[in-house]
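note to self: the first set is below, dont mix up w the second
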Amino acid sequence: MINKRFFKTKDEVEVTFELDATNVESAVLVAEFHDWQPMPMKKVAKTKSFKYKTRLPKNAEFQFRYLVNDNDWVNDADADNYVPNGFGADNCIVKTEPLCEA
């Protein structure tokens, strides 16, 4: 799941990436906005999920994937789009464009 929070006075978007923790011992977010370096996700017992929150520039798009249990690549079903990654799979896309400007 991806949640986006837009700010009226800032050119950035707060994006929260959330992954179901069922059968997951560890999860990292691997994303182009971190130069493809794994970023550990925090396990949240209350929601039984892993989360990672960051701020990204507005009106952009970025590729990402989740790596779970140090072995399995997982895509986000709520991604804005998908693109082939050159390794026989797809990367997720997150877009930081507001749906409509107020």
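second set (the one i keep forgetting abt)
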Amino acid sequence: MQLDWTTFFLEVINFLVLLWILQRFLYRPVMASLDARQQRIKDETARAEQLRSEAEALRLQYETQLADWAKQHEASRHQLDAELQQARSKALDELRKSLLDEAAKKQARDGAVIAAHESALIREAAGEAYKQAAEMLVRLASPALTQAIVDVFLTDLSALNDAELNTLRKAAQALIDASLVEVRAAHALGSALQERISQALSAAAGQALAPVFVEDVNLIAGIRVVVGECQMHANLRDELAFFRRLNQHV
């Protein structure tokens, strides 16, 4: 077999031309396409990784926010419970105070009613006692009792203090007539007793007085002396009236 060098070289040239054509029109575009595809894959992978990282960050953010919301909700619930408890306590305190005030008012009203009832009973009893005492004193009244009361009056008249003496003397000095002095007696007084009364009044008044003596059975027993604006009572009727007025103010 004889080698044909011309054919051989032509074949080599054809092969080289083929390699160049493949390199030029097939290999490079294919490699460029593969490189572009690989780059796209890398870009997509990077993008996916970025998205995954962002998703993970969002998940962590949401979880953190949910945890914060849960804490805030728990804190709000505790605060609401505390406010409700405080409101309940305040309402109970106000209700308790209102009940105590109402009880105190009721007790005061009951006490006032009881006191008024007791006062009415006391006044009624005192009025009945006054009536019985007056009836008894009327039965016991006598000239001797009147004279005994006059003796007590004269003793008290001689023992008047300075203020009482000044009042009596001013009333006597204001008289237009010294005879405008009246002595009312429940029973007729003897001349000797009238003289004693006149002398005692003149001595106490610091000037001569000429009292007019009048019998007044309404006095029950004792006397009533009027010197101008000054009145002196020493009789059972005025004493009973005084105690009756005190009873009316009970």
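remember for set 2: The radius of gyration is 66 Å.
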